């Protein structure tokens, strides 16, 4: 389901949106893990990993209807640019 999540440029991955800093550099600003489209609906389950806190410029984070358990990692508190968090 995340077959496009390969390579070293996450801005080319499906469900990831980036903005451009300059001619060569981009940063991840949106992560949409709701995984819905017209043709199919995907599902992930498990716990939220602290590594998402490394996406320092994230402004929109959607986890939607995923089967997530546990509490949010404390590390997410560094995401001070987060404007929308959809659970």
Name its key features.
6 strands, two-stranded parallel sheet, Leucine-rich repeat, LRR (right-handed beta-alpha superhelix), globular, 87 residues, mainly beta
Describe this structure as you would to a colleague.
This protein has 87 residues and is mostly beta strands. The chain has a single domain (10-86), classed as Ribonuclease Inhibitor (Leucine-rich repeat, LRR (right-handed beta-alpha superhelix)), CATH 3.80.10.10. It is built from no helices and six strands. It is globular and about 40 Å long. The model has no long low-confidence stretch (mean pLDDT 81).
Question: What structural class do you assign from the helix and strand content?
Answer: mainly beta
Q: What's the number of domains? A: 1
Task: Using the coordinates shown, work out and report the CATH topology.
Answer: Leucine-rich repeat, LRR (right-handed beta-alpha superhelix)
Helical fraction: under 10%
Question: How is the secondary structure organized here?
Answer:
Layout: E1 16-20, E2 26-32, E3 45-47, E4 60-62, E5 67-69, E6 84-86
Parallel strand pairs: 2-4, 3-5, 4-6
Antiparallel strand pairs: 1-2
Task: Give me a quick take on this structure.
This protein has one domain (10-86): Alpha-Beta Horseshoe (Leucine-rich repeat, LRR (right-handed beta-alpha superhelix)). It contains no helices and six strands. The protein has strands spanning 16-20, 26-32, 45-47, 60-62, 67-69, 84-86.
């Amino acid at each position: 389901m995340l077959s496009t999540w390969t390579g070293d440029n996450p801005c080319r991955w499906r469900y990831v949106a980036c903005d451009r800093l300059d001619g060569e550099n981009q940063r991840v600003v949106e992560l949409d893990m709701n995984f819905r489209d017209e043709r199919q609906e995907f599902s992930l389950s498990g716990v939220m990993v602290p590594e998402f806190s490394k996406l320092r410029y994230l402004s929109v984070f959607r986890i939607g209807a995923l089967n997530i358990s546990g509490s949010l990692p404390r590390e997410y508190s560094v995401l001070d640019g987060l404007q929308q968090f959809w659970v």
